[in-house]
Design brief:
It contains 10 helices and no strands.
Length: about 230
């Protein structure tokens, strides 16, 4: 039993460590890799585009579906991608662990309940020397208070499930845009400008490539007609 408690204690610490590790990893990638998750069309992106349109310069509005699909562009409120769905398995495992832990805590006994109590350093036991009548110690069996359990246990677990598993990608995007973006504002603007310049480069090269293809097709047809005339 003691060994199992130690193993679960290590797993609990490992779960907390992974949360901090992922947070630090996201911040490092955000600061060091300008292309890290830099595929979202934010309001500042379109503000730059409107400014260029007013100045009579080349602008991007509207982006075609092919451009969005080939470059993986999306809105901040777009549905989750395959990578985000695949990444939801780890939060699901964490939620399962918390659910099992909460189940043992509700029962009030068991090695997991003792483990959580030791980690929280909460004084669950109290010794006192009180003399009282045995009649007060005898209680009639009562059914569980399901309303209390639903309000303070099931509802928080349901909210955790929605936030960590189903809407986990929403939290990551909100963290990326509103928390990290507000902390590192200059970096946030630099990332958006980089994405805009990248798409502008793709648009200009795409037009030049399309014109080159048209010229090639025209010249090819001219040569074919000349060959037909020479044969006649």
């Amino acid at each position: 039993m003691t060994t199992l408690k130690q193993v679960l204690s290590c797993l609990f610490v490992l779960m907390i460590y992974t949360i901090f590790r992922d947070s630090i990893k996201m911040i490092r990638n955000y600061l060091n890799n300008i292309d890290f998750n830099n595929v979202y069309l934010t309001p500042y992106f379109w503000r730059i585009d409107k400014k260029r349109a007013k100045e009579g310069k080349i602008f991007l509005w509207p982006l075609s579906k092919a451009e969005k699909r080939s470059n993986g562009l999306m809105k901040p409120i777009s549905p989750p991608t395959r990578a985000e769905i695949h990444a939801s398995w780890l939060p699901l495992a964490k939620f399962t662990f918390i659910l099992i832990t909460a189940n043992f805590v509700i029962q009030g006994s068991g090695f997991i309940a003792d483990l959580v109590k030791q980690m929280l350093n909460f004084d669950y036991k109290r010794h006192s020397n009180i003399t009282m009548s045995t009649e007060k110690c005898i209680f009639q069996p009562n059914p569980p208070d399901w309303a209390y359990a639903a309000k303070y246990i099931l509802v928080p677990l349901l909210i955790m499930f929605l936030l960590q598993v189903i809407f986990g990608y929403v939290i990551k995007r909100a963290t990326l845009f509103y928390i990290i973006g507000n902390i590192f504002r200059k970096r946030n603007k630099a990332r958006i400008i980089h994405l805009y310049n990248k798409m502008l480069f793709v648009r200009i090269n795409g037009r030049n490539l399309a014109r080159a293809r048209i010229r090639f097709q025209v010249q090819r047809r001219i040569l074919q007609r000349q060959q037909i005339r020479e044969k006649r």
